[in-house]
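hey
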């Protein structure tokens, strides 16, 4: 049973026993002009509380503006003292702490205005909006709700703060499920979720299971204080903002009399029992089978294993492997597949393979999703809190011992001593307690040292890289050293503004369809990992099939698709889901194909919801000019990660490129070779450079793209062209040559001009779509019998518009 199904079953069970459940969607941003001048400034520059805390003197006036008379320089430090996240009894929560402003005990932040514990409880779940974003205990939503209830004469409820600062949705839902499992709730209790809306299908099922749903955006913005009672966005509020939310919640509770919603629940189901038992999934079986197909693992052999991140691969890692391999017949090296390190998984994986290729009984494999991953051991990747975090590694170790080690006949697990990193040290100690239960011997090996410089560690190597230290060679194998020297002048990935890694070059699939099933495997073999498509190319299904055939343990694909039909705004979630089903792959980057008149801002809001609900890795735009981008940023809650535009040496669009760079938006270049236009391909300057560097003209152009920091998306069908287009890392254009290519800009556009793309007919159609969308949103609770009237009304509006023209 997956987490969403379990969540719905929990809601159904609580409804049966008389517990009422509410979901309050935290306020979204409305048009920027609604907010006061200071608030717009904070939103535009994304001045969050953590940003203020990093540099208090720089943002003193901003902080004063948010807090008003309550401002105090010393408060920043006191409010920043958020306790670390720990695992406790199957739940993720904040550690206990006692301070002047923030107090946590047994996973609950203190709720003020409580004189005694009441028989009935209101449990509030959410992120920082519940825990309290840079506010004192008495200023959080739960505390102000408690105060409001008292003022209304409602004295038989105690409010409980189960907020978790910085958590993801899954952690919050897991905490709720764990509380259900422990039978925390009883009749007449109230559950409140205050956070971003869940995915549409989950939310719909939750409503059917008896959950009340309320979007607070509209009502929140009816209060005068809403014009400026927050930091960088309405969700990150001061005390005045949280008071509004408490007021809205209190009104809803009173309107429903704190009673559960009467709904028809599924009949004939067995009583719900939550289970913590681990279950082997189809995906885990596939992972184990892939390893077995790669390495012969006789049951009689002594098989050992090491789990490594290798960020990057050092002589310390090599020493651990050499020592371990002498004690076993076969040694499996699992390289962590989570892409949350300075070096990407593909880089780390190749470094380990290259650094161990001379060792006969050593086999390198990816860790998949089941060994030290965000699913099994999320704390490993919470770098900011690792020093003080107390962790529970049981689940990760049980998955390894109960399934992976058993199926692969692993009898020994080797680990290096860890004197520095507290989280890794705890993991090692827990390993010694858990794995022997599954017949696995844990062997700890002392770290290798460099004379007079202490133990070798990847963190030391990364520090030496930044300092360009000559000592680096003593710490890494020659294979790693050569790669690091090459990496100084080359990149394989860029980091987008949300931290997501994106390949430096992609593969464009237009206008191919069926032939993609032959071309994609060739592209993958050549080294492409990012693939760009569009719903209107009508090739998503072909790309999905091709990627599925090309997928194996080592390959992480990055898929980009777009919405190209504004009418899909009316069934946005369903259309997005169809794209994902056709692609058979998570959509890493979802783009708006054009700045569609009238509908673009509503489209962007729908895309923001997708991103905030975790449906895609990131969102962005295509073909946005300076003017369009400025308007979007004024309205957007989430900044676009990329702007995909036509760009090549004869059409450089410098103004929008400079604007995007200043705002942390990456440029993706489509038609980077100008569709092989002769004016570009036969340019004498480029031909002379191709001869000078021993490369082709397309390679010179793509190298120019990469050195400018752009992400080109070339296309092609012939294998030699696919290989050549990505083979651009063995040379660098000089600064002088870069400037010469820059001088070729002459405004030669080979694709559509965004300013001239849509004529009056298109604009009228888009206006009509937007009217339907807005009308549907406004009257979403109207009965079906009124839809015919609405359609008539919309047709009438359209006729009036046409006549007026």
């Amino acid at each position: 049973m997956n987490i969403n199904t379990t969540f719905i079953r929990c809601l159904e069970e609580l409804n049966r026993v008389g517990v009422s459940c509410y979901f309050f969607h935290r306020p979204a941003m409305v048009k920027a002009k609604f907010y006061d001048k200071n608030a717009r400034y904070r939103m535009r520059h994304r001045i969050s509380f953590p940003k203020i805390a990093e540099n208090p003197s720089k943002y003193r006036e901003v902080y004063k503006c948010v807090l008003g008379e309550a401002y105090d320089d010393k408060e920043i430090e006191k409010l920043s003292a958020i306790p670390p996240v720990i695992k406790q009894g199957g739940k993720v929560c904040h550690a206990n702490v006692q301070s002047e402003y923030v107090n946590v005990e047994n996973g609950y932040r203190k709720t003020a205005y409580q004189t005694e514990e009441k028989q009935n409880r209101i449990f509030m779940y959410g992120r920082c909006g519940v825990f309290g974003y840079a506010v004192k205990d008495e200023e959080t939503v739960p505390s102000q709700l408690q105060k409001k209830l008292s003022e209304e004469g409602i004295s038989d409820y105690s409010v409980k703060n189960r907020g978790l600062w910085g958590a993801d949705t899954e952690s919050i839902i897991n905490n709720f499920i764990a509380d259900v499992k422990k039978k925390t709730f009883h009749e007449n209790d109230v559950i409140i979720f205050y956070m971003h809306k869940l995915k549409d299908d989950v939310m719909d099922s939750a409503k059917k299971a008896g959950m009340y749903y309320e979007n607070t955006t509209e009502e929140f913005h009816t209060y005068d204080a809403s014009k400026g009672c927050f930091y960088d966005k309405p969700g990150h509020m001061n005390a005045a903002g949280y008071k509004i939310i408490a007021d809205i919640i209190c009104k809803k509770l009173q309107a429903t009399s704190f009673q559960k919603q009467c709904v028809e629940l599924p009949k004939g189901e067995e009583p719900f029992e939550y289970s913590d038992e681990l279950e082997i999934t189809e995906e885990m079986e596939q992972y184990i089978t892939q390893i077995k197909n790669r390495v012969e693992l006789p049951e009689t052999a002594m098989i050992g294993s090491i789990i490594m991140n290798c960020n990057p691969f050092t002589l310390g890692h090599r020493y651990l492997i050499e020592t371990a391999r002498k004690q076993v017949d076969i040694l499996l090296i699992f390289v962590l597949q989570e892409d949350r390190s300075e070096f990407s998984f593909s880089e780390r994986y190749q470094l380990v393979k290259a650094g161990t290729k001379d060792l006969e009984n050593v086999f390198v494999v990816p860790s998949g999703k089941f060994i030290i991953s965000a699913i099994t051991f999320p704390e490993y990747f919470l770098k900011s809190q690792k020093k003080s975090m107390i962790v529970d590694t049981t689940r990760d170790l049980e998955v390894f011992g109960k399934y992976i080690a058993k199926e692969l006949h692993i009898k020994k697990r080797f680990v290096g001593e860890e004197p520095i990193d507290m989280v890794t040290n705890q993991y090692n100690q827990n390993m010694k307690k858990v794995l022997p239960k599954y017949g696995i011997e844990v062997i700890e090996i002392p770290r290798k040292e460099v004379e007079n410089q202490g133990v070798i560690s990847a963190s030391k190597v990364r520090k030496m890289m930044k300092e360009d230290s000559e000592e680096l060679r003593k710490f890494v194998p020659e294979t790693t050293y050569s790669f690091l020297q090459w990496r100084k002048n080359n990149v394989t990935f860029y980091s987008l503004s949300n931290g997501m890694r994106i390949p430096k070059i992609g593969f464009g699939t237009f206008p191919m369809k069926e032939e993609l099933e032959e071309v994609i495997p060739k592209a993958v073999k050549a080294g492409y990992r990012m693939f760009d498509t569009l719903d209107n190319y009508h090739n998503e299904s072909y790309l999905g099939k091709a990627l599925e055939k090309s997928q194996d343990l080592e390959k992480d694909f990055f898929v980009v698709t777009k919405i190209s039909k504004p009418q899909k705004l009316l069934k946005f979630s369903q259309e997005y889901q169809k794209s994902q089903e056709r692609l058979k792959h998570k959509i890493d980057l979802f783009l708006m194909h054009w700045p569609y008149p009238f509908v673009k801002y509503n489209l962007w809001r729908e895309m923001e919801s997708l991103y905030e609900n975790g449906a895609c890795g990131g969102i962005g735009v295509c073909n946005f000019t300076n003017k369009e981008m400025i308007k979007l940023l004024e309205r957007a809650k989430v900044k676009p990660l990329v702007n995909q535009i036509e760009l090549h040496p004869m059409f450089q669009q410098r103004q929008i490129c400079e604007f995007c760079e200043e705002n942390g938006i990456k440029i993706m270049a489509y038609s980077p070779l100008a569709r092989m236009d002769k004016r570009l391909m036969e340019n004498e300057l480029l031909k002379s450079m191709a001869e000078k560097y021993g490369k082709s003209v397309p390679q010179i152009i793509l190298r120019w793209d990469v050195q400018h920091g752009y992400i080109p998306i070339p296309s092609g069908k012939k294998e030699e062209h696919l290989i050549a287009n990505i083979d651009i890392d063995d040379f660098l254009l000089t600064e002088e040559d870069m400037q010469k290519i820059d001088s070729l800009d002459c405004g030669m556009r080979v694709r559509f001009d965004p300013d001239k793309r849509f004529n009056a007919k298109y604009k009228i159609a888009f206006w009509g779509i937007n009217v339907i969308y807005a009308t549907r949103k406004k009257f979403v609770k109207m009965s079906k019998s009124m839809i015919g009237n609405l359609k008539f009304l919309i047709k009438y509006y359209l006729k009036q518009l046409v006549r007026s023209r």
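The chain has 31 helices and 26 strands. The two ends are 58 Å apart (CA to CA).
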